[in-house]
Structures are given as structure tokens and as C-alpha cells.
TrEMBL record:
Organism expressing this protein natively: Niastella vici
Stretches that traverse the bilayer: 12-36, 48-67, 79-97, 103-123, 135-160, 180-201, 213-234, 240-260, 272-291, 311-328, 348-371, 377-399
Taxonomy of the source species: Bacteria, Pseudomonadati, Bacteroidota, Chitinophagia, Chitinophagales
Keywords: Membrane, Transmembrane, Transmembrane helix
Protein name per its UniProtKB record: Cytochrome oxidase subunit I profile domain-containing protein
Length: 406
């Protein structure tokens, strides 16, 4: 349990660093910060966000909740988490100065290998659980998606090393990685943790059939829905698989609304703020799913994959709206924060308010570009949102430290 608390604190510090990098990127757009290489810094921002925040946070929760008690104290898990942490920090300090240079590539490759090491032992341990409930199925597929996603970076490395000019494969490799991270590992991890909490705090011993349906449909949707990102290839078989993925996603949403009536939310999240964050996370999942299926229509598909504000908005919708809001609700419900303190509540409201404000501005900016209207005011508003995210995340770190002291 001591290890779990350490990684919770560390992950929140990392979230604050991610927010600081985001603020710096927004500042670079507005001010002549010639000493900052925007492309290199955005690589550091994205790699550290994935490795230092979300992956570390989810795998820490997996280790200390889903792994059977006899195996939770394995030193192997802590070695792998430390390995991921140090390599994420290595990427943080190497990407800004050299981009995809030798040192950054070494750290990013080692990070992937540490996720392999974690995944191998985690899968072996959870397979020892008999009559595995939906949470374990989701966690299993989530980890498989984490491993599969690494094919994207390795393909990019091959293309760069061979100096190939295959722009189509380069683009597909990026989409492959992002899809199996965002719509695979991250999304399934959220529901794995959510169902585990429900199963241990109030769901009947017999899991409702609709919950099993949701689980299988969500897991089954990951592979075919990848082809929603490949519709620009204009092939019949890609479109057929994309339609299958969209149908499965719609089936997930229908099941989700039915599952909602069986969830003992008040027992899982006794704090009103935790329930509020949980609602925002699920709302983000619904919007994400609708945007995914909507890409079948050329107009929306071109916007989602062609307009920068819409792309950034979608990525942050999953990263901040679905995943970060859920993790914070989990932290609150498990006592990581002393939620009764006013400062803790203020930190949550500042951070959540900044996320909602940013997503709203990105949506308005995207619609404006679709209509042929562009305004420099959006960059200033997004800069203000970035300030709010950094201030809110810094307050979360302070709130965490105050809670630990109390």
C-alpha cells in the first residue's frame, strides 16, 4: 500500500509537469520564444503525458487492485514501474533538445520494453483468477492493446532508419499507435477499474448479463474501429471493417446506458465531487464514441482528422476528459485526497473547470474553421485554459501533499 501511495503522488507531480509543458507550448504560439523548438517540445509533452502520467497511474492502480493479493507485493512490479518512470523522465529531458535523436529513441524504446515486462507478469497473475468477472477481461485486453500499440513506434523507427518515403505507412503507423493507446489501453483501463470498484462495493455476486455484453462489445470493437481512421484509403474492405467497428461502438453505448441502472454509484463514490468527475468521464466516453462513429460520414471524418483544433480536442477529450477525470475520481474515492478540505475541492474545481473551458474553446474553434471563420482570440483563450490546467494541477499536487500530512 505504501508503494501505491508513492506512485499516486508521483503521478500527480507528473501531471503537473505535463500541464506546464502544455502551457509552454501555448505560450510558444503567442510569443517569440526562439529558444524553444515547438516540434521537439510537443514530442516531449506527448511522450511524458503517456508514460509519466496515464500509463504510470493506470498500471499502479492495476497492480494494487486487480492483481491478486498474493502477488501484489512482487518486487517485479515495482521494478517495472521504476523503469517506466526513469525512462519517461529520460524522454522528458531528451526530446526537447534533440527531438527523435539517439538518446530519446533509446529512452522511448526502453520504456516500451518495461511495459512488456510488466504486461507479461500481470497477465500471468490475473489469469490465476477463477471465474474472471468483466473487470479482469477488460484489464487483460487493455494490457494486450498496450503491447500491440508498440508496433506503431517500431514501424516509425524503421521508416526513419531506412529513410523510406512511404508517407501513407508513416501516417498509418501514427494512427495505429494512437488508436490502440486511446481507444484500447486507456479506455479499457478506465472501465476495468470502474467495474472492479463496482464489483467490490455493491454489485450483486452474479454479474448482470448486460455488463458482460458491454464488456465483450467494447473489447471486440477495438480492432475493427481502428479502420475508422483508415477511411481516407478509400478501400471497400477498410470501410466494411470500419462500419463493423461503428456498429459495435453503438452497441457499447446502448449497453452502457442499461448498465448504468445497475451501478451502485453512491456506494462506489461517496463523495459528490468524485461522482461528478465520474459523470464527466463517462460523458467524455459517450462523446468520444459518437465522434468515432461519426467519422463514417465524410464531412465529420475530414474535420476529425483534418482540422487541428478538432484533432487536439478529441485527443484531450480522451486524455483529460475520460482518463484523467476517472483517475482523479478513483483517487478521491480511495482516500488519496482529504476531500473535506476546502483547498482540495478548490483544486479539483480549478482543474476540471480548465479542462471543460479548453474543450469548449477547441470545439468552437473547430466549428469556426468548418464555416471558414478563424480568429486569433482562440489562441489567447486556449492560453488562458493552459494556465488554468497548470494552476489546477499544481494545486492538486499541493492538495495531495496536504492530505498526506493530515
Amino acid at each position: 500500500m505504501k508503494n501505491k501511495q508513492f506512485w499516486i503522488t508521483t503521478s500527480l507531480v507528473n501531471l503537473c509537469i505535463v500541464a506546464l509543458l502544455g502551457f509552454t507550448l501555448r505560450s510558444k504560439i503567442l510569443f517569440p520564444l526562439n529558444f524553444i523548438n515547438y516540434g521537439n517540445l510537443i514530442n516531449a509533452h506527448s511522450h511524458f503525458a503517456f508514460g509519466g502520467w496515464l500509463t504510470l497511474a493506470f498500471l499502479n492502480l492495476f497492480t494494487h487492485t486487480l492483481v491478486p493479493l498474493p502477488y501484489q507485493q512482487r518486487a517485479w512490479y515495482q521494478w517495472m514501474l521504476w523503469g517506466m518512470f526513469f525512462t519517461a523522465v529520460g524522454m522528458l529531458f531528451s526530446f526537447p533538445f534533440q527531438g527523435y535523436g539517439p538518446i530519446a529513441i533509446i529512452f522511448s524504446t526502453l520504456f516500451i520494453f518495461f511495459t512488456y515486462g510488466y504486461s507479461w507478469v500481470f497477465i500471468k497473475d490475473i489469469l490465476t483468477v477463477k471465474n474472471r468477472p468483466p473487470a479482469y477481461i477488460l484489464a487483460f485486453v487493455s494490457i494486450i492493446c498496450l503491447v500491440i500499440s508498440s508496433a506503431g513506434p517500431f514501424t516509425l523507427a524503421y521508416l526513419m532508419a531506412s529513410k523510406s518515403g512511404n508517407a501513407i505507412l508513416f501516417k498509418d503507423a501514427i494512427y495505429f499507435y494512437l488508436h490502440f493507446q486511446y481507444n484500447g489501453f486507456f479506455t479499457l483501463a478506465v472501465f476495468a477499474m470502474l467495474f472492479f470498484a463496482a464489483n467490490t462495493t455493491g454489485l450483486p455476486n452474479k454479474v448482470p448479463v448486460i455488463t458482460k455484453w458491454f464488456t465483450w462489445l467494447l473489447c471486440a470493437s477495438v480492432l475493427p474501429s481502428f479502420f475508422l481512421t483508415l477511411l481516407w484509403h478509400s478501400g471497400n474492405w477498410e470501410r466494411t471493417l470500419a462500419i463493423l467497428g461503428a456498429v459495435l461502438i453503438i452497441g457499447c453505448l446502448i449497453c452502457l446506458f442499461k448498465v448504468g441502472s445497475t451501478f451502485p454509484i453512491r456506494h462506489i463514490y461517496r463523495s459528490l465531487i468524485a461522482r461528478w468527475l465520474w459523470f464527466l468521464a463517462l460523458f467524455s466516453f459517450v462523446i468520444k464514441s459518437l465522434l468515432q462513429t461519426g467519422t463514417l460520414f465524410p464531412g465529420l471524418g475530414n474535420a476529425v482528422f483534418g482540422l487541428r483544433p478538432v484533432i487536439i480536442g478529441f485527443l484531450h477529450l480522451v486524455f483529460l476528459g475520460l482518463c484523467t477525470f476517472y483517475i482523479l475520481s478513483n483517487y478521491i474515492s480511495t482516500g488519496a485526497f482529504t476531500i473535506e478540505k476546502r483547498f482540495v475541492r478548490s483544486a479539483i474545481f480549478v482543474f476540471a473547470g480548465a479542462v471543460i473551458f479548453q474543450e469548449t474553446i477547441l470545439l468552437i474553434q473547430g466549428v469556426g474553421l468548418l464555416l471558414g471563420n478563424a480568429s486569433p482570440i482562440y489562441n489567447w483563450l486556449l492560453w488562458l485554459a493552459a494556465i488554468g490546467l497548470f494552476v489546477g494541477s499544481f494545486m492538486l499536487v499541493v492538495a495531495r501533499l496536504k492530505s498526506r500530512e493530515g
